[in-house]
Amino acid sequence: MPEMPEVETIRRTLADKVEGRKIIRVDIGLPRLVKWPTAPEFQAILTDRTIRNLARRGKYLLFYLDNNFVLVVHLRMTGRLCYITPETKQDKFTHILFNLDNGDTLLYADTRTLGTLYLMPEEELWRIAGLSSMGPEPLSAEFTVEYFTDMLSKRQAKIKSVLLNQKLVGGLGNIYVDEALAIACIDPERIAKSLTTQEVRYLHQAVNQVIADGIAHGGTTFRDYRDGVGQSGSHQRYLQVYGRTNEPCQRCGGLIARKEVAGRGTHYCPNCQK
């Protein structure tokens, strides 16, 4: 699933191409991807509307329109948004086309078709539960050491489970949680409230670091992820533990291990993350 760095990279690579552009027609090949309103209403409301601004919150992309509506896209596991010109060939996983007034197209493709699209008045975005209940995200003014310390001190769950909870920290997913815990030398099964003051500070810094590095490298690409112009990210070259089972730890030389934590495949160093 694209996480905060990947979604932010998509936003950055699309913003200057779609902001100020008018949507002249919407073609929907798979109506069930549109969760609200109905697909015909979705098409009617978007037609002849101009994209004022492209923003992001956690893993959601928000296209603010000139009629006070917001197109909200969550890519889930394999969703892709890509800006293409008329000569670009579309693949068989393309399901929605937003045809623009300059002849180019913003397409939504999705291999597993798990993504979700909503079109809401701006004042009704609270209806999207995952968006309205999201906690502070890394690198934001709200994601302070004080917030992080207080939040963790109240959690009896495993630290990995807490970091994956979007209501507590917005935008984090499996890759970047594993990486942050590795940098901070914290076992993913540690109980959150058991972390010392120093460990909490190290982890807070590590979370911000892995997100900033992921954005700087254009995201992490293993299979499906591409940015808004179809390019792969390069952060996979810099990962310390994720996807590196049985490879040597860059810190101690021991072998990276994998286990299930919070229902997710989890990569860690047994020596460094005791």
Q: Could you explain the architecture of this structure?
A:
With 274 residues, the chain is α+β, with helices and mostly antiparallel strands. The protein has 2 domains: 4-132, MutM-like, N-terminal (N-terminal domain of MutM-like DNA repair proteins, Alpha-Beta Barrel); 145-268, Helicase, Ruva Protein, domain 3. 26% of the residues lie in helices and 24% in strands. The protein has 7 helices and 11 strands. It has helices at 4-18, 39-46, 129-132, 145-153, 159-164, 174-183, 197-216; strands at residues 22-28, 34-36, 49-57, 60-65, 69-74, 79-84, 94-100, 105-110, 116-121, 257-261, 264-268. The strands form 2 sheets. It has a 9-stranded mixed sheet with strand order 2-9-5-4-3-1-7-8-6. A two-stranded antiparallel ribbon has the order 10-11. A hairpin with a 3-residue loop joins β4 (60-65) and β5 (69-74). α1 runs parallel beside α7 and α4 (145-153) crosses α7 (197-216). The protein is globular and about 55 Å long. The model has no long low-confidence stretch (mean pLDDT 96).
